[in-house]
């Protein structure tokens, strides 16, 4: 008997290390546009806001100037700087071996999310994937967790949502789903640890929680 039948993951800073990639691109963009490079603590503080607004805030420039430079280098640098966190592949395979249904619900913009997921070669592990597009709501709206559960015919009591941010935590709470904090990657783990049902310092810890009654 398993304690959960399904695990839904966030993507950035949970499965996929986008931090190194993003910081590199911000520094590159700042240099090209001849402004000061943003401090990492400022980038972390603004990381949870919508992507285009985030770029404007951390570089203090209009998005019309920032986006062409940032995105113009993304495809070149993503394969070099972006990567899965240590232990993710083994954990996903272990969950699959135990018959756990897996999904992704992320605020990553859809073209980038699918490109990164395809690069990992792990897309077949996930029975449902929801990256952000113009028709979908940002978290903490629980709408896409509801959609995932409906699509996969899941009882929300049997689902665990794992993420790195306070908006992930709020999203799970609003959906009535247990939340696990991915503290192996979270930029501000102290903001989510006290309220989380489960705290995972490493991806390998997920399997025992999910598969033990």
What does this structure look like?
The chain is of the alpha/beta class and 213 residues long. The chain contains 9 helices and 8 strands. It has 2 domains: 6-17 and 83-211, HAD superfamily/HAD-like (Rossmann fold), CATH 3.40.50.1000; 19-81. It is elongated, with a radius of gyration of 17 Å.
Topology:
Elements: E1 6-9, E2 16-17, H1 19-32, H2 40-45, H3 51-59, H4 63-81, E3 83-84, H5 88-97, E4 101-109, H6 110-120, E5 128-132, H7 143-152, E6 159-163, H8 166-175, E7 178-182, E8 198-200, H9 205-211
Parallel strand pairs: 1-4, 1-6, 4-5, 6-7, 7-8
Antiparallel strand pairs: 2-3
Helix pairs in contact: 1-4
Summarize the model shown.
This protein is an alpha/beta fold and 213 residues long.
């Amino acid at each position: 008997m398993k304690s959960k039948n399904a695990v839904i993951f966030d993507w950035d800073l949970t499965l996929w290390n986008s931090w190194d990639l993003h910081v590199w691109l911000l520094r590159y963009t700042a240099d090209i546009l001849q402004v000061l490079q943003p401090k990492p603590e400022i980038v972390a503080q603004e990381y949870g806001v919508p992507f285009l607004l985030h770029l404007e805030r951390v570089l203090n420039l209009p998005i019309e100037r920032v986006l062409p430079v940032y995105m113009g280098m993304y495809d070149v640098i993503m394969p070099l700087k972006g990567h899965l966190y240590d232990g993710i592949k083994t954990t996903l395979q272990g969950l699959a071996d135990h018959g756990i249904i897996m999904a992704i619900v992320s605020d990553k913009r859809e073209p980038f999310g699918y490109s990164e997921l395809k690069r990992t070669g792990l897309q077949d592990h996930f029975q449902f994937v929801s990256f952000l597009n113009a028709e979908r709501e940002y978290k903490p709206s629980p709408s896409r967790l509801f959609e995932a559960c409906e699509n996969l015919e899941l009882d929300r009591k049997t689902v665990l949502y794992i993420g790195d941010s306070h908006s992930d935590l709020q999203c799970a709470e609003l959906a009535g789903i247990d939340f696990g904090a991915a503290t192996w990657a979270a930029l501000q783990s102290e903001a989510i640890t006290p309220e989380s049902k489960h705290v995972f310092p490493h991806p390998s810890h997920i399997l025992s929680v999910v598969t033990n009654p």
